[in-house]
């Protein structure tokens, strides 16, 4: 959540010279010189004269949470609604620094409980809720603060602020004052990923979060519980279709995820791209994109624990993605075909060579032969198709995954729509042990892709134009040649078109 930070008074106040009395009073309040403050007030110093930016002595008293001085200034006629050029008022300062008693004093003196802190509509109630100032929140509500006011930039409410920051007591108080837990943030921002030329660009929606989704995303256990107790829908999605479980999973908040499961969250609610909690948990367990969100130190639950819990609650082990996952659309994970339509949790585990997890999914009736929309199978991806250095599986782990897939009866020569097969993947990775195994089991050594590339070509670093060549794998090249591998015949554009008809 983009935090609309409270303006810190000290960062923009400057020392200037004015009328002697006012300047001296401002200086005395800024330096917290109580004796001088009293003396100057007795001498009739003007309490309303501001600094050039509009900041008054009362602003400074509120900034220091100095109730005694604020009371003296108010009694001397200070303007409790004065705003400086940044929109800060004495009340907004008091709400942001924990001064509950001072908030009450300012309100009784006529401060507006619906004062805006920023030009984008952040209110003092939002400020108090964000910092967890329970008594200040109560005072503002008691004096008529609008509980469901929204700031204009994201459409966020005080309840969202309190939830995201984990202030459960404030969440409960706001709910008791009928705060709308169903309110959603605005869909103001979309992420347009930087992809290679010719790749369709799909904007990723950001927004549509409720207070519950903010709390879950930030890993705020107590606030999440308070919202659920207050009637929030445990399965409500954001604009992308992700619910609280998925948002918590993507941010490594596994204890919170376990709590949501135990409280009855639906394990089969899918996002718009078809991603389920199970797929997400597998993705996080075998995550090789970076940087990963840091796990909470106190969390005792792991992603594997979540996978087991979801399976025990009836998660559909064979659910398939319906579109490319957003994770595949960012710089850390571009072009990962395992994350496109048709991918399964089993396929995702195979990509990382996670044989133990593959077996766990099989025990729960995973279908290992399901392919994605491009014809990619668990065997093909385990062998190394679309492999990149960031994939964390070792060659030995990948080989075991390949062996398991062959034992399960997956076709060694099954090709994707573009003609890539398992042996092409092994050659791409430069995995000599996998090349040997596949050839021994009957993989076609000289199978060509739609662009005429054989496994030997791939090992040599050749790719379909217009992509630049890759680094070759000399030992793999030598091995494939020794086994009888040959280069392919590059296809001309008209030949490729004819094959596609």
Describe the structure.
The protein is mainly α and 501 residues long. It has three domains: 9-118, Ankyrin repeat-containing domain (Serine Threonine Protein Phosphatase 5, Tetratricopeptide repeat, Alpha Horseshoe); 147-187 and 205-316, Ankyrin repeat-containing domain (Serine Threonine Protein Phosphatase 5, Tetratricopeptide repeat, Alpha Horseshoe), CATH 1.25.40.20; 320-501, Ankyrin repeat-containing domain (Serine Threonine Protein Phosphatase 5, Tetratricopeptide repeat), CATH 1.25.40.20. 43% of the residues lie in helices and 1% in strands. The chain has 26 helices and two strands. The chain has helices spanning 9-12, 20-30, 34-42, 57-63, 67-75, 90-96, 100-108, 124-131, 134-142, 158-165, 168-176, 211-217, 221-229, 244-250, 254-262, 277-285, 303-312, 345-351, 355-363, 378-383, 395-407, 422-429, 432-440, 455-459, 474-482, 493-500, and strands spanning 189-191, 204-206. It has a two-stranded antiparallel sheet. Helix 8 (124-131) packs antiparallel against helix 9 and helix 11 (168-176) packs parallel to helix 13 (221-229). 50% of the residues are buried.
Beta-strand share of residues: under 5%
Overall helicity:
40-55%
- CATH classification class of the largest domain: Mainly Alpha
Main pleated sheet:
2 strands, antiparallel
Sheet with most strands: strand arrangement: 1-2
| CATH fold group of the largest domain | Serine Threonine Protein Phosphatase 5, Tetratricopeptide repeat
Number of domains: 3
CATH structural architecture of the largest domain: Alpha Horseshoe
Distance between the termini: 49 Å
CATH superfamily of the largest domain: Ankyrin repeat-containing domain
Q: How many strands?
A: 2
The secondary structure category is mainly alpha
**Spatial extent as radius of gyration:** 31 Å
Number of alpha- plus pi-helical segments: 26
Cα shape: elongated
SSE pattern, N- to C-terminal: HHHHHHHHHHHEEHHHHHHHHHHHHHHH
Mean pLDDT: 87
* Poorly predicted segments: 1-21, 191-203, 328-335
